Amino acid sequence: MKTNDPKKRELLESLKNGLIVSCQTQKDEPIYTDDMSIKMAECAKWGGAVAIRANMPEQIKMIKDNVDLPVIGLWKIWHEDTDVFITPTLEACKAIWDAGAEIIALDCTTQTTHEGTIARDLLPIVKKEIPEAIIFADVSNYDEARWAIDNGADIVAPTLYGYTEETKHIEGPDFREFAKMCRDFKDEAFVMMEGHIYTPEDAMKVLYLGAHSVVVGSAITRPHYITKRFTDLLSGYQNNWREAERSKH
């Protein structure tokens, strides 16, 4: 059952059929400046985005201070011994909540974290500790989406399809599995599409399939990856640009 909290429902319904732009930059990227995430978010709002997805407390706070849009917050924390990097701890969840994010995104896969826990087991803990937050479950497949919804996720999206050991060979979205998620879960949670969407046509396709909203990041806000997709093809696929996108920072 979708949340009955009127405040949460109002915010989530305001995102329907809209574009959410992921406005993120890391310090080792060529586009990084102290205010780049703000500029990205300002451009997203100017262009008609309904919300922002943002990484790390300081960037979330800067965006909230300057751009009047809801924020899906996360904190990417990388470790060499795990592929879990999206808001992997309760402390990280509290930090992005305190920074102003209305929605908390976290890894809800079955992968093992740096701390030795199963990533998705954090979800019910966050629900208990920060009950006011809307929870965005980043999953890699249908079964993980089912578990996340059963354990209180308000939003599910296949964000991590292509980022787990079983799916890391993937370049494009699995439209068929996403359509099944939309059909089966539409009455229980808000199903959004995130990951591998690079054109307006693909964004329209997932809305047609039943997505509540669509999140787009690299194809809009990261020109170095856009360039690398072109040069990858022009060089005869000698290098895989997705390896650069998946790199740990």
Index terms:
alpha/beta, 9 strands, TIM Barrel, RibuloseP-bd_barrel, isomerase, 39% helix, nine-stranded parallel beta sheet, carbohydrate metabolism, 249 residues, EC 5.1.3.9
SSE blueprint and pairings:
Layout: H1 6-13, E1 19-22, H2 36-46, E2 51-55, H3 57-66, E3 71-74, H4 90-98, E4 103-107, H5 122-129, E5 134-138, H6 142-150, E6 155-157, H7 175-185, E7 190-191, E8 193-194, H8 200-209, E9 214-216, H9 218-221, H10 223-234, H11 241-245
Parallel strand pairs: 1-2, 1-9, 2-3, 3-4, 4-5, 5-6, 6-7, 8-9
Helix pairs in contact: 2-3, 6-7
**Name given to the CATH homologous superfamily:** Aldolase class I
- Gross CATH architecture: Alpha-Beta Barrel
Low-confidence stretches: none
Element order, helices and strands?
HEHEHEHEHEHEHEEHEHHH
User: What share of residues is helical?
Assistant: 25-40%
Q: Helix- and strand-based class?
A: alpha/beta
For the secondary structure, the number of strands is 9
- The global form is globular
* CA radius of gyration: 17 Å
Protein name: N-acylglucosamine-6-phosphate 2-epimerase
Family: Belongs to the NanE family.
Pathway: Amino-sugar metabolism; N-acetylneuraminate degradation; D-fructose 6-phosphate from N-acetylneuraminate: step 3/5
Function: Converts N-acetylmannosamine-6-phosphate (ManNAc-6-P) to N-acetylglucosamine-6-phosphate (GlcNAc-6-P).
Walk me through this protein's architecture.
Strands 7-6-5-4-3-2-1-9-8 form a nine-stranded parallel sheet. With 249 residues, it is of the alpha/beta class. The longest helix has 12 residues, at 223-234. The protein has a single domain (6-223), classed as TIM Barrel (Alpha-Beta Barrel), CATH 3.20.20.70. Helix 2 packs across helix 3 (57-66) and helix 6 packs parallel to helix 7 (175-185). It has helices at 6-13, 36-46, 57-66, 90-98, 122-129, 142-150, 175-185, 200-209, 218-221, 223-234, 241-245; strands at 19-22, 51-55, 71-74, 103-107, 134-138, 155-157, 190-191, 193-194, 214-216. Strand 6, helix 7 and strand 7 (190-191) form a beta-alpha-beta unit. The chain is globular and about 50 Å long.
